[in-house]
Amino acid sequence: xxxxxxxxxxxxxxxxxxxxxxxxxxxxxxxxxxxxxxxxxxxxxxxxxxxxxxxxxxxxxxxxxxxxxxxxxxxxxxxxxxxxxxxxxxxxxxxxxxxxxxxxxxxxxxxxxxxxxxxxxxxxxxxxxxxxxxxxxxxxxxxxxxxxxxxxxx
Length: 154
Hints:
This protein is an all-beta fold. Helix content is 3%, strand content 64%. The protein has one domain (19-148): Lipopolysaccharide (LPS) transport protein A like domain (lipopolysaccharide transport protein A fold, Sandwich), CATH 2.60.450.10.
């Protein structure tokens, strides 16, 4: 008579992943304030903060100078918001911008569009490769611009 044994040696404490999720939420509105006023309002259908990085799905944001900034995914790292997939930036007065990736620096009020974009204002249409937009002064700098601009006859 012979007996064969198979032994599996494991250390379960090594195999278990330590959870790092600090916050998880659904359908939430965040209002950023200082001592005097509201700085900005953001909304997301789902979000999680993991290891200090906040990721928000179906992101919406507005403040004094931005009518609406939205994307499918937004990742907060410090003062910057990395916007990914179907990014739309609507100015209070001016153009609407469409792209796939952008970075918004909340402290400086600068939106950097890092992929090809389309801007529409009325019948005017502009395409470009990259864009830097200063939300406070409403100035923009774009690269490789192709535009159709309608002017008034005098």
